[in-house]
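Reply to dn_fold:

You asked what the input looked like. This is it:
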Amino acid sequence: MCSMSRTVLPGVRVPYGIRPAIASDRGAIQYLLNHSWRVYLPAGFQWLEQRLTAGDCWVMVEGRREVAGVVAVLRRHPEVVSIVGAAVRNGMPVALYVEMTLATLELYGRRQRACGLTCLGSASWLSETLSAQGFRACEHVITYGWQARPISVTGNTTVTVEPVRYHELEAVAAIDRQIFAPVWHKPYDELEFALGRADYFVVAKHEQRIVGYCWSEWSETRGHLTRLGVVEDWQGKGVGTRLLTEALNAMVQFGITWVTLNTQVSNWPARRLYERHGFRNLGQAVPLLWKDLRATSPNPDASVSLG
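and this is what came back:
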């Protein structure tokens, strides 16, 4: 059995520990998520549960029973480990929670030979404490919105757009690794997870070669374009336009009235594509926080290339 790291608060008799989460923790984790106001779940509980199943989730416990906090990670790339879920019980000092979980995550990252940890700074309670622990903003993410309206499918007509098949996920993952920096990678298991839950997941093909992909999710009248990518040698040839307009047309047909998407501030080709099709910047810039884990590189500016 894995031993727990432990600490004792001054004046408190019951120590806190952190250990790998197990299947029987699901109910306590769900209770924590439902009752705590300090929760970070950018992709929802289903994704946190998937990380629990994968063994990339830890819980903070009071004594040996009560779950007081949870944290989950995703290894996006051999160089990068991302925090994808976190929550702490009301009344628990956030600084203590972050100090303990971060020690565990840093050890995990180094054992995986990762260069750094990342976390999207959308939850101020978490990002402010991580910043105090040496995380820095390496990029900012902005949100675009689109008021749905009838739209024609345009762009490259030499490609076909069709639903992705399971055996094609490896090719999609390879494109993702080629065109996105490590901190933004969608690893194979995330693509596999998306295939089972995305409302719309397609690839663009030219003579049976996959040259692009797109997936979207929606609920009632709200849609979100989660990912759109085009292989490097087909960029600038209208494939992105084709994938975008196909996706928007599908959402309009389904009854979606409002569509959002996220992209990096520095990704001007993507921003121009979205703005050309009526998306507007909603003015929300969220930092991507990074902490270097390499003992030989104490200077954060010498960290892995972030693109």
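The chain has two domains: 5-134, 143-285.
Hope that clears it up.
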